[in-house]
Every structure is written in structure tokens, then in C-alpha cells.
Specification:
single chain; mainly alpha; 75% helix; globular; binds zinc ion
Length: 200
């Protein structure tokens, strides 16, 4: 077993950051009457749930290595798009918001605990979470061309967040702080837990 030691000051920092950031998570709902590429691009960076989960996917991909390094960051946006199509098509899916928040907790914990399951486990898990992230927006997309430009921006931002996670993961292995990536994963998991218990 790995021990995941975290100084109390770090926990306090996370708590303080959370107070400021939970309001950012609420950016999830908003005015969707006009949807541009730039808005699609901005949303995953302003919605805390998306941002944390997508960075965690990159972190996890860097920990898993091998084919997972590119399979995870490509599977997520692909299945996310499929989820958006399902939502847009009116397919009913339960527990979407809780599932999205749970994805932050689960993916953060996977990174913090350096879980390294086979692709048979990691890919379906990533796919399930990706579908929920996409679905939540598919249901609210307007039935016009702006939906496509918004989705384009959303997908580009998702890939960027995966790459940021991968970059952090790789940088962490070169840093004197050996557990930097796992600490980032732990912070993501803690924030996921806070989002889960915070009514929104
Ligand atoms: Zn959102």
C-alpha cells in the first residue's frame, strides 16, 4: 500500500481554494442561447467539474503509460461527443450531474493511489465518465449550427486539459517532489468530494 501523506496546511489550502472555486462549478448552467466556438473553448476551463476530471484523465494517462497515454486522451473526447449526441437526441440518462462529480473524485483517487488497471478497466471507465460530461451539454444544445462550433471549442479545450494533465504527470516524474502527480490527484479527489457534498 502507498501512504498518501498530506500536510494539514495543504488540506487547509484545498479547503480555502474550494470555497472560492465552488462558485466556478456553478458556471455549468447558464445562458445557452448563443453558443460560439470561444464559449465552447472556455466552458471546460470555467466549469470546475470538467476541468478537474479532464486534467485527471491526462495525469492518469501519463501514469499508465504505453498505449493508455494516447488511448485515454482520445477516447474521452470521442465518447464525450457521442454522449452529447445522445443527449441532443433526447435519450434519457439518470444521475448525470452526480456521475460527473463522481468522475472528479474517482479519477483523482485513481491518480492519487497510482491505480494501474488494464485498458479493459481504464478505457470503459473513462468512456462512461466522458459520456456523462458530453451528455450534460448535449441536452442543452440548440438545434442549429452554433451547436457544432460550440462543440468544436469544447473538444479542443478537452484535449488541451488532457495535455496539461499529461504534461504535469511527466514534469512530476522529473521533479524533486516525487509525489507531485499523486498530490495533484489527491487534491482533485478532495475537490471532487467537496463538489459531491456541496448542493448545487
Ligand atoms: Zn458543463
Amino acid at each position: 500500500m502507498h501512504s498518501f501523506a498530506r500536510p494539514a496546511s495543504f488540506a487547509a489550502l484545498v479547503a480555502a481554494a474550494t470555497v472560492g472555486l465552488t462558485s466556478a462549478a456553478l458556471a455549468h448552467v447558464g445562458d445557452h442561447s448563443h453558443m460560439s466556438f470561444a464559449e465552447g473553448l472556455a466552458h471546460p476551463f470555467t466549469g470546475l467539474d470538467h476541468m478537474l476530471a479532464m486534467v485527471a484523465v491526462g495525469l492518469w494517462a501519463s501514469q499508465l503509460g504505453g498505449r493508455a497515454l494516447w488511448l485515454l486522451p482520445l477516447t474521452f473526447p470521442a465518447i464525450m461527443t457521442l454522449g452529447a449526441v445522445l443527449g441532443f437526441g433526447g435519450v434519457a440518462l439518470p444521475w448525470v450531474e452526480i456521475g460527473i462529480t463522481a468522475s472528479v473524485l474517482v479519477l483523482g483517487a485513481a491518480v492519487a493511489l497510482t491505480l494501474r488497471p488494464s485498458l479493459l478497466v481504464s478505457l470503459p471507465l473513462i468512456a462512461l465518465f466522458a459520456a456523462l460530461h458530453g451528455y450534460s451539454h448535449g441536452v442543452e444544445l440548440p438545434a442549429n449550427a452554433s451547436a457544432l462550433t460550440y462543440a468544436g471549442g469544447f473538444i479542443v479545450a478537452t484535449l488541451a486539459l488532457h495535455l496539461i494533465g499529461i504534461a504535469i504527470g511527466f514534469a512530476a516524474t522529473r521533479m524533486p517532489v516525487r509525489f507531485a502527480a499523486r498530490t495533484a490527484g489527491g487534491a482533485i479527489a478532495v475537490l471532487g468530494l467537496v463538489l459531491l457534498v456541496t448542493p448545487h
